[in-house]
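Here is one chain, start to finish.
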Amino acid sequence: MRMGEDPGFDAWVADNLPVEAAIGIDPWCVSVDTAQRWQLTFAKKQQKLVQTETNLVDEVWKSRPPAEINPVVVHPIEFTGCSVAQKLKDLRAKLKNEKTRGIVVTTLDEVAWLYNIRGTDVSYCPVVHAFAIITSNSAFLYVDKKKVSAETNRYMEENGIDVRDYADVSSDVVLLASDQLDSTSEVKGTDTATGNGTTEAEGNNIDRIWVDPGSCCYALYSKLNSEKVHMQQSPLALAKALKNPVELDGLKKAHVRDGAAVVQYLVWLDKQMQESYGASGYFLEGQSANKKKDLGAIKLTEVTVSDKLEGFRASKEHFRGLSFPTISSVGPNAAIIHYSPHAETCAELNPDSIYLFDSGAQYLDGTTDITRTVHFGNPSTHEKASYTAVLKGHIALGNACFPNGTNGHALDILARIPLWKDGLDYRHGTGHGIGSYLNVHEGPHLISFRPHARNVPLQSSMTVTDEPGYYEDGNFGIRLENVLIVKEADTKFNFGDKGYLSFEHITWAPYQTKMIDLTLLGPEEINWLNIYHGRCRDILAPYLDESEMAWLNKATEPIGV
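Its structure:
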């Protein structure tokens, strides 16, 4: 069943269960939006949604390993660029503006961003298993207290954050609903107390609680009075997406180091493919000599080469791990958009097939995500034409200039037009936000054909990826991805006084010119590519040795001149 193409889960359940059936859910694992949508669907068949008191999988999972106790780490101001006090002050201003007296925060990266903390509770995402509640005069963090050191606890107290046990969030939401939730910490980041000892919220009879229906679990929502709930996307989603100058600077620096690691990887891989497989290599076209007959020759697989790439990244300053499992894919596997190689079953590299690698890392100063597609043999005319169409869309989107208020749904077409001209397309979005040492996929904005890409316009200081592709089932896949920063554009005119925006590339790694059909590129595209490659040389030079730099100089030689 394909989401978005086949009938939804709720429709299938409603059609395949008898009238008046009861459908049980674990309300901690279902969002408010989802639960309410299912209720409407089931009601049409007189079916009902039932909240189970326990998770039924947990009931039978007797050998479940105990939860790991990973420390909550304070993320320094030198990387966050904004204090917790300021973030709480800004949040409370938004609560007041929407006439609410509190908010329940259930999204892990929002909790981490708001309180300037990080952790290792989720693979590839430096977040902590935690909830938060913020009111007009208090702030709470719900977490396993064994994860909180004395030093971190002091930090929480200094910032007016009351640390409570993870399970206490359930009873505290009940107290929040009746306005009886009290903090033991000194309040920071608020000036909402009135002279008579009551909060401003109480003084103005503000009695609504802010809940994000797309992320808040149904279990906590069910403990609130539904008539006194303000249902709207969390104000933290947009605040987190609008990067401050320190975060932007960190992201740029992280991408430079990351780009150097990618170049070092390509240099190594180029050499290995020639030595072990008789490939013509990154620069030359020609059939491979199928050299790997020697049993002592190094066998390169999708997993072993991705491990090597991780090693290059791990040598860089501030490295903390990968930002997602590397998509390292050869030939037909590259046509699987979210392919995940496993050591036991993965493919061996093939000099006569396309190789696509989509990868990224977590650094203390930023999160990265980059895709390059290469061929170490003799790419076909069709493969070159497809690669060039993807590259043209990638360049077109990255060079876009657009008025304030434009959303990612409107821009998505720019990356697809060169593919559409040949009757080609791809079945994924074109861009997603990226975190600042947080989740590699970050909203609330995105560039996509999907309707929800209309919800949030792109704004200056957001990050977004530019990653069109083309996938031919059973043959090959192509994707090119850079991270962009949205910035104010310097336009000749300013029609309607709207102000205009453009993009700045912060990813630095070469595009394989051997894969480009120059006859399909226009002068502006060739000029852009030569300028970009020139910047790659200048920016990455301090991080490469002499042989690596020689390789990069060759990889970025001007084309079409």
